[in-house]
Write a structure and sequence with these properties.
Helices cover 45% and strands 12% of the residues. The longest helix has 18 residues, at 168-185. The protein is an alpha+beta fold.
């Protein structure tokens, strides 16, 4: 409790006037939020500023790869998943300087304020090793066989199935992000995905840090993620 109160007091030094309106703004906030807990989500690597300590998480074999040494901000629910709900993603309604029509992420960021808000949602953003962010891509989460890892990171990746499975320590975090995004922004999930995330949410409770982080985000956003703040209630519904 003392740690939570201390964190909220520290947070008051950079409270924003409103929810972040762009992904660029959110990335700066994520840096602040994780200053007291500089650890990546999937691999548990520690870092300083934007430089990863690969030795801290058994990923030293990836040290020669440039993107493995830098921190990036990961969308747990991939942008491609929620963007399908926006016309600007599907239809070329934007035009570039040469008059050529285009669609997709750049178009949505340009013309749709709601897309920018969803893209910037702090409850969906965590720091991660750049190389792992790249490898996860927009793959959906699932349960995969075997004990394979990615350069020593406990993340299973199946490129053929376009599926990833995080370590048990991460499954609850992923589940609560997806369930929140689906409910708050009316983003559809398949029945299989919903069942998976409900199971992970029930099986893997929020840690002290996840609760602390979510309380900080609630101050900034102005609304809670009830799957974290009221986990006992939501867990009992499943």
């Amino acid at each position: 409790m003392r740690f939570l109160l201390y964190s909220l007091l520290c947070l008051s030094q950079f409270v924003w006037a409103e929810s972040p309106g762009s992904f660029a703004q959110s990335k700066k906030i994520v840096q602040q939020l994780f200053r007291s807990h500089p650890q990546t989500i999937y691999c548990g690597c520690t870092y300083q500023d934007k430089t990863v300590n690969l030795d801290s998480c058994g990923m030293s074999e990836a040290g020669e790869i440039k993107r493995a040494n830098r921190i990036e901000v990961e969308h747990l629910m991939a942008v491609e998943h929620f963007s399908q709900h926006f016309a600007c993603w599907r239809t070329p309604i934007c035009t570039d300087a040469q008059g050529k029509a285009f669609k997709g992420r750049k178009c949505c960021e340009k013309v749709d304020a709601q897309f920018r808000h969803v893209e910037a949602e702090l409850y969906n953003l965590w720091p991660e090793v750049g190389l792992v962010n790249q490898a996860r891509s927009n793959y959906r989460f699932g349960v995969l066989p075997g004990n394979d890892s990615y350069y020593g990171c406990s993340l299973k990746i199946d490129k053929r199935l376009r599926r990833v499975e995080p370590a048990n320590e991460v499954k609850g975090i992923v589940a609560r992000a997806y369930l929140f995004m689906s409910e708050y922004y009316h983003i559809s999930l398949s029945s299989a995905q919903r069942q998976l995330f409900e199971a992970w949410n029930q099986q893997f409770a929020p840690t002290v840090w996840e609760r602390t982080w979510a309380a900080q985000v609630a101050v900034l956003e102005g609304y809670p993620n009830p799957y974290i703040s009221q986990w006992d209630t939501h867990k009992s519904k499943n």
